[in-house]
Model the fold of this input.
Amino acid sequence: MTAAVFIEIGQMTGAVAQDKDTARRVRLEHVLPALKKGARIVLDFSAVNLTTQSFVHACISEAFRTYRDTALDLCEFKGCNPSIRNLVTTVIEYSMNVGELMAKPAVRLTSTDVPQADNLDRVRVVLEALARGDNTHHQIVERTGYSRRHVDYRLHSARVLGLVKMSKAALALTELGQKLVRTTVGSEFEREVLEAAILGSVILQRLVPDLLDDDDPAAVEVARRITKRAGLSPATAARRARALISWRRRVATPQIQLFKGDETDAD
Amino acid sequence: MRIELPSQISAHTIENFLSNTSFFGGGAAARTLVFHPQFNKIEPFGIAMLAAWADWCVANGVLVVTENGQAPGTVYLQRMGLFDHLPRDVGPAAITHHDETGRFVALRKISTQRDLDAFVVDIAPMLHRPENIRAVIYCLSELTRNVLEHAGSAAYACAQHYPAGQRVAVGIADCGIGVRQSLSRAHAPKSDEEAIVTALKPGVSGTTLTTYGSADNAGLGLFYTRAVARASEQYFSIVSGTAAYRLNRSQGDRPLTRNPEDDKHKLLRNLPLWKGTVVSVDIGTSTEADDFDELLAAVGEVATTSTTQAPRIRPKIRFTP
Done:
């Protein structure tokens, strides 16, 4: 049985727990690792007189958003005065309600929901064609030089990311897509918009909610989830998993990847 | 270029002050800050603004001189530490030092979390009213941390206790990127006023589109601060760019909602530019200690309502003594 983890918050923060950097360290170094191992964790607020909602959020929100009932079972909050208790309750409640929305999309996933384009920079090239007024597949093919098949893959990925709206009549950038094309390629702003797109994608949050977590999700595990939730064959799921992992690499670090030219799209 | 200050700068008269005072027009021309001959009152947000602006001028090579530095209210400014940032056209007045405890928290420039930690440690004994220390610390902490995380500049903060008015006024100002640019990374506000209103809603963070933010940010700091002021029937104001929102003191029977425009308020547009953000919050001192606990519960209830279409989860949390 994995040993319980005890965190005395007051020892780290003093009577006023308001340092979000400390909260972040508690989350990354203690809470998330403990939950990943299935260990019980006790957060002791006995020596804390006052905390802020921001501190509590930085400490535990991600844990409850990701681990949900497991976090409820394993986490104990000790010595909380009424104001701290109220804040902990609020943070856990909205974190789990947000997680619930992401865990249950409006429609069941199908194989066609899983993105295929593995190069986000080439997805962006397609978006930039749209921004220039090319709003048919043919025009985008002409503009970019990509094959029709690859334009379709990239538009589909853009739709999954909430960057493009598609209807029978026309293609158009969403507000987020417009924001992306206004950023400088390789900039921190671009990275942040892509990160927001991934976090805001119902499909991706259903498939790989931990895609952008500090710990790399293993490609094998991602492929397993794709097979289970979208019904793809293991071989196809493995290719799609590699594509999603490449998105993570593109987005999870501030600098543009050096190997972006080496990747080709899936068949 | 002359900047003429009114005789009073307060949350009550903020519209007049903001509408008639242009700090950032005039390019690199020297500025003369003119105190009104009957200058007699300035609330903490005004002090914080002047300090932030003065340091911005120094950093940007803009010369600043002052005029009428002998006006009656300037002695108070000296005690609050403003003339550590602003020049003064006359020598320092002889000050009779009073015990600061229970009266005010002098101006502080906060650039790091360590500065903020030290500031919070210093606040508690200076405002020795236990029934409202927590609310003051809470608001100062949330608002100042917002500046450090989102503004890209230092925060200037101070506080004053007004026993007759039964309130503590807190003011925080910066000359950073402002609310609109801070939100634009994840949202697309079309104006400063839209940005301010958006930022006041719970769950809106400039770091992500996801409701209730990222692992580090929930977008609830301003919502809680507005709620604290509202609960004690006091002013709350936020200024950024060319717009400002000021919550009225009396809300009658209106319940707290997620939308700041549901409250009685003033939304000011087309103001002279303020480069950065200013927040002013007043906290009533006639409240009891339990009121703060109940307030947090009530605010949390609103913050967690209607966030999703799914049935609301009320988790059973393990609290132990």
Observations:
- Residues 119 and 291 of chain B are 24 Å apart (CA to CA).
- Chain B has a mean pLDDT of 86.
